[in-house]
Design brief:
- The protein is an alpha/beta fold.
- The chain is 36% helix and 22% strand.
- A 6-stranded mixed sheet has the order 2-1-3-4-5-6, with helices on both faces.
- The two termini are 23 Å apart.
Length: 123
């Protein structure tokens, strides 16, 4: 998974990003406390549940990659945190996921939209 936060650079007028890659085996709660991310992005399907739980616990925006409803805590998914959900175009759960967040169908769009959440949650 990847933690993303915004940072200001005195050398630029554009807002930049700090990125930190975390393994599922890392102490993610400690890393959240130290890195202080604005957004958490799943990079594999196996990280979705952990990303969802961390995001809700720490009030963060997040991104999920090819999630399956039966593998997620629906009560956490229903929480009103900004989220981006990457799905296949023919996913049978597409309509359900659109009720919970913004659905995208392309990996590059997923990464771009998750980064945009930094601006949303930083306001």
């Amino acid at each position: 998974m990847q933690f993303i936060s915004a940072y200001d650079s005195s050398k630029s007028t554009k807002l930049g990003f700090r990125l930190l890659h975390i393994q599922v085996t890392d102490d993610c709660h400690y890393q959240v406390a130290v890195f202080d991310p604005n957004v958490i992005m799943a990079e594999t399907e196996h990280e979705n549940s952990q990303v969802l739980a961390l995001a809700v616990q720490h009030w963060l925006g997040y991104g999920l990659i090819y999630p399956k409803l039966d593998q997620l805590d629906i009560s956490q998914l229903q929480q009103r945190y900004p989220k981006i959900i990457l799905l296949d175009e023919n996913n049978p759960e597409y309509d359900v996921f659109t009720q919970y967040g913004q659905v995208v169908l392309d990996w590059n769009e997923y990464q771009d939209e998750v980064k945009k959440l930094v601006y949303h949650v930083s306001l």
